[in-house]
# Entry
Amino acid sequence: VQLQASGGGLVQPGGSLRLSCTASGIILSIYDMGWYRQAPGKERELVATITRNDNTRYADSVKGRFTISRDNALYLQMNSLKPEDTAVYYCNAYRRDASTTYDYWGQGTLVTVSS
# Structure
């Protein structure tokens, strides 16, 4: 199983980026998915999640600026970016059945917001 995050880069404050996460070895539609981020010297934190039924949840710090979506991949549209959004962004796929927890992470893509 492999999750591949892409779309990161250097952007000026106020700019936009769209992150993508594709998967091999699993069918994404049966997983709850999310984006997390880790800034230098800080712990990994939740950015946004989306369930199999397309219910979404956002961190307060990104509400109104970021949009999570999915089809055969996972996306994060990031608008009005701020320097404090600078971090490595990770995608996650998660589900549980009666006996097993499946929890997969991508390798991360770096987002740098700076002038």
Summary: The first strand starts at residue 2 and ends at 6.
